[in-house]
Design goal:
The chain is α+β, with helices and mostly antiparallel strands. About 25% of the residues lie in helices and about 30% in strands. It has a single domain, classed as Immunoglobulin-like, CATH 2.60.40.
Length: about 170
Amino acid sequence: MKFKGIALVASVLVLGACGGGETTAEAPAAAPAAAPAATPAGGAMASGTAMPITGKMIEIRMVGDAKGYRYEPAIVSAQVGDGLKFLMESGGPHNVAFEASMIPAGSAAQLDANFGTDKIGTMSSGLKMAPGESITISLGGLPAGVYEFNCTPHLAMNMKGTLTITP
């Protein structure tokens, strides 16, 4: 019986480590307090309900090859309502993750909702392993501003990007 308890605790610790660390744990606590203030200005629904894509779709390739690991393009400009389609090209697994400290205040709950259900954590998509797989994120209801994103498995290899959303 004691072994089963130790195995359960070890499993919880391993799964917790895969969830993204402290940033993931802090984001949900900060988002509810900030979300109501951003709701009127950003046009987001108070509940954090996923917003539809009402503008253009912008494709961003996720690449890992002899030149390094990167998003192409790594600097993206979009408008509220546009959508981002991150397409797995090579060198996976890749994902898309945002940290609450690297996005406009009050936008975390809406951004997280706009990921849909393909997530491994708060504001962090599931891993894409095979070429052709993709991640789609709506920019609906988000406040204008600069949003920094990264690929969790390749963060140490500087796989990062910058999204600027305008009204």
